[in-house]
Write a sequence for this structure.
């Protein structure tokens, strides 16, 4: 590319050397100049500038060689001399077809005499473009003539690729009048000037710098790039890099990469390998893949560095982000698969790191390498790269499934193979589930269900599930079912493994089930100080607090808290079920200081051990503690942290619980409208744990009450109580729905309903009296017949009415949102007050009034 005055950009040194050669020609002395360089560097432009430098009267002979003419003898020589001699054979110029068997000495001497005769009375300039593509006869002539110009005013200038430099040095190196030129890439300043000129206006400096980087100072590539930019109307003042990069990649693909394919196949092959496998690929791997050896590989790297596609050094990185897409666009999908497969085989043979080999296995879709993928998953998980670990382990499971079941039944080797396959499947499933605990709790629940379906027996299944036991998984019914089922199977064994039974029982206790509880309690009592017993004790403490056994719950929770406090700094808890259950128990029994201290330690431990699921649960519990302390801003911060983690872990049920906690805190901060928006935005989960559903109902009721809709609030609070009662959570300290429902009843003017909902210990309206003789059984002395209901509290009256109407205790519990145990307690008090012993007597005592 030229400057406005016709001079070449960034070619002052080369033009000065050519000017010196022309000066030698004017003095009658010869010069042979060779211009070397890569495609597009400007060799032809320099050659075309020579005629402007020549003295007047110089005879200029020009030829442009092409591979399509290389099979015609003396085709280049004919281009040079025909315009002057007209192809006359009498002048000694070989015409086409002469000397086809090879250039004879007589023919070369004839051409030498012709050259001498032309240079007798005037200087001669012989200019040849792309000399290496000339026919062999002409090449021989060029070398022959160049070595015999000592006393002739002849200037010979030829352009050659960089790869021909060694050959020229061997043939013409001893010549004293040999001049070799190596044009350099354009500098950034020259590139900017050229781009400004192409756009006819000053361009953005970032665009100019990007063009320089993409073209690597190559004038032809730069010209092609700028032409494409103008054709696509890229604004020069404020370009979009996202628009420029694809254009640059296309320009590279159709210029530099096409030249490499043609002139440097080894370099092109290496570039393809680095683009497909990655620029950090070991040179030994590239050499093994190309089968050329490391020497050729190094030469190919140097070629790519000179072409501006690769940075110097090992491993060589691409000079620009557009290079790799441009190369990949030229590689078919089939070629990529083949190359990845070959790379995986080479890496495995060379003992490369398992993750590097596993990446190639996955990209190639190979049907081998389960052990490699397993090792890569373990290694990735160990360094916290859970995304990659899940990818490796999922691929290993897919390969194992593709193998199919072993052969004929009854064959001992087939049975052994089947067991090994099942063991491998269970191991991979559990490893994948452990990885998913850090990134996708729903996926972890699916892996737990797959492990629970293993054919290896209850002990092996229990061992596998114990490794996945996290209280975060029981937030949904799907996640709880495998643990409940396997725990029941394990408890039914004559001698179940103690640690596995305690851990699984702890997990099932948090779901509200009691599979294996008695047996686990006996095993825990035998050694209450070990980690498994602490896990069980924490879950049992939460269950005891939920059912109202507050003293037992507090003692167990404090024991777990003491064990957690004695753990080494940064150590992970044996299982989150222990400290999470203990923290809930302390919260529900009113020990907020103890709960806060325990949950603070749990957050620190779970973060140090990279356990986001436990961190999520700990934030939820701490939000509850702070909410009860009325530190609403802190409670909201914890709930927001839990919500962020729940979304990251794909745990919709826990996200609903976190949203509920955040909404309650917002109401406490007088931001009820914002809380309503938050609850509406979070989708409901149909199979969430009943306790989580109850929390969500309470939060919705709290928001409704804060917005003045007490009718809706009462309905939501009663529904909350109903769900808690069905799960056996009867202690009012767990969820404060009763007090909130009573407040909404009062706001609606229903004082009786408010008193009823708060009546945890029914009050008597008068002393119970013994029956007088002659008084019907069931009628207290001094009480008029038909007025027995006046002795009962409102809560007892409701229970009595439903029982008389034929409802069972469970049906009464469901209708009044109580537990069956509470209904039975009410019935016992009713019987004592009325001096009766059965439902039949109750019907006789108050049935007439109900009939009226």
């Amino acid at each position: 590319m030229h400057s406005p005055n016709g001079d070449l950009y960034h070619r002052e040194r080369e033009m000065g050397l050519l000017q010196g050669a022309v000066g030698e020609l004017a003095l009658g002395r010869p010069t042979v100049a060779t211009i070397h360089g890569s495609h597009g560097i400007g060799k032809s432009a320099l050659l075309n500038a020579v005629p402007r430098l020549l003295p007047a009267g110089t005879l200029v002979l020009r030829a442009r060689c092409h591979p399509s003419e290389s099979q015609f003898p003396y085709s280049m020589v004919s281009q040079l001399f025909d315009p002057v001699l007209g192809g006359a054979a009498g002048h000694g110029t070989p015409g086409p077809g002469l000397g086809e068997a090879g250039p004879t000495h007589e023919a070369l001497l004839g051409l030498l005499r012709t050259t001498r005769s032309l240079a007798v009375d005037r200087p001669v300039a012989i200019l040849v473009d792309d000399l290496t593509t000339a026919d062999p006869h002409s090449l021989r002539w060029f070398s022959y003539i160049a070595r015999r110009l000592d006393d002739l005013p002849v200037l010979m200038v030829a352009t050659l690729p960089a790869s021909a430099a060694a050959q020229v040095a061997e043939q013409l190196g001893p010549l004293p009048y040999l001049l070799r030129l190596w044009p350099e890439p354009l500098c950034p300043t020259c590139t900017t000037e050229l781009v400004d000129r192409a756009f006819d206006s000053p361009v953005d400096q970032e665009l100019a710098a990007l063009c320089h980087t993409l073209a690597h100072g190559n004038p032809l590539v730069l010209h092609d790039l700028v032409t494409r930019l103008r054709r696509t109307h890229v604004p020069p003042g404020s370009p979009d890099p996202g628009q420029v990069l694809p254009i640059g990649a296309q320009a590279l693909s159709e210029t530099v990469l096409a030249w490499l394919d043609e002139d440097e196949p080894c370099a092109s092959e290496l570039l393809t390998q680095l683009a497909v496998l990655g620029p950090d690929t070991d040179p030994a791997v590239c050499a093994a893949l190309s089968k050329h050896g490391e020497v050729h590989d190094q030469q190919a790297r140097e070629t790519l560095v000179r072409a501006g596609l690769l940075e110097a050094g090992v491993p060589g990185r691409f000079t620009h982000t557009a290079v790799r897409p441009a190369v990949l666009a030229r590689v078919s999908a089939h070629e990529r698969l083949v190359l990845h497969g070959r790379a995986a085989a080479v890496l495995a043979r060379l003992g490369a790191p398992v993750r590097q080999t596993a990446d190639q296995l996955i990209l190639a879709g190979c049907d081998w390498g389960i052990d490699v993928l397993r090792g890569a998953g373990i290694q990735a998980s160990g360094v916290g790269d859970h995304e990659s670990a899940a990818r490796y382990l999922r691929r290993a499971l897919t390969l194992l499934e593709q193998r199919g079941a072993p052969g004929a039944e009854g064959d001992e080797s087939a049975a052994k193979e089947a067991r090994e396959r099942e063991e491998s499947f269970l191991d991979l499933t559990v490893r994948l589930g452990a990885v998913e605990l850090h990134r996708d709790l729903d996926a972890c629940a699916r892996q737990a269900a797959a492990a629970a379906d293993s054919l290896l027996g209850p002990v092996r299944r229990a061992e596998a599930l114990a490794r996945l036991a996290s209280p975060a998984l029981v937030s949904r019914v799907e996640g709880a079912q495998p643990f409940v089922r396997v725990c029941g199977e394990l408890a039914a064994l004559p001698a179940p493994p103690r640690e596995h039974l305690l851990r699984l029982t702890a997990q099932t206790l948090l779901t509200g089930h009691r599979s294996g509880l008695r047996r686990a309690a006996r095993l825990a009592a035998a050694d209450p100080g070990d980690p498994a017993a602490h896990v069980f004790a924490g879950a049992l403490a939460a269950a005891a607090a939920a059912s109202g056994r507050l003293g037992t719950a507090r003692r167990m929770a404090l024991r777990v808290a003491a064990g957690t406090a004695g753990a080494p700094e940064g150590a992970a808890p044996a299982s989150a079920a222990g400290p999470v259950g203990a923290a809930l128990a302390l919260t529900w029994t009113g020990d907020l200081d103890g709960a806060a201290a325990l949950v603070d330690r749990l957050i620190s431990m779970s973060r140090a051990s990279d356990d986001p699921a436990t961190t999520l649960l700990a934030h939820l519990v701490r939000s509850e503690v702070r909410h009860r302390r009325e530190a609403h801003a802190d409670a909201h911060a914890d709930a927001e942290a839990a919500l962020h983690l729940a979304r990251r872990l794909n745990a919709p049920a826990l996200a609903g619980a976190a949203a509920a906690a955040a909404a309650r805190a917002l109401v406490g901060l007088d931001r009820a409208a914002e809380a309503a928006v938050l609850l509406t935005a979070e989708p409901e989960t149909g199979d969430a744990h009943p306790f989580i559903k109850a929390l969500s109902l309470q939060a919705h009721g709290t928001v409704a009450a804060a917005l003045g809709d007490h009718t809706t609030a009462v309905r939501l609070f009663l529904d909350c109580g109903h769900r808690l009662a069905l799960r056996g959570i009867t202690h009012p300290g767990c969820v404060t729905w009763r007090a909130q429902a009573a407040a909404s009843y009062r706001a609606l003017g229903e004082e009786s309903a408010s008193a009823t909902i708060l009546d945890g210990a029914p009050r008597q309206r008068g002393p119970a009296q013994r029956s007088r003789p002659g008084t019907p059984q069931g009628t207290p002395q001094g009480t008029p017949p038909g007025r027995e209901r006046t002795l009962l509290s409102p809560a007892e009256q409701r229970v009595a009415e439903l029982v008389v109407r034929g409802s069972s205790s469970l049906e009464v519990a469901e209708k009044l949102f109580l537990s069956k145990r509470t209904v039975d307690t009410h019935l016992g008090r009713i019987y004592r007050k009325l001096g009766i012993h059965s439902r039949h007597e109750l019907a006789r005592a108050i049935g007439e009034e109900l009939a009226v």
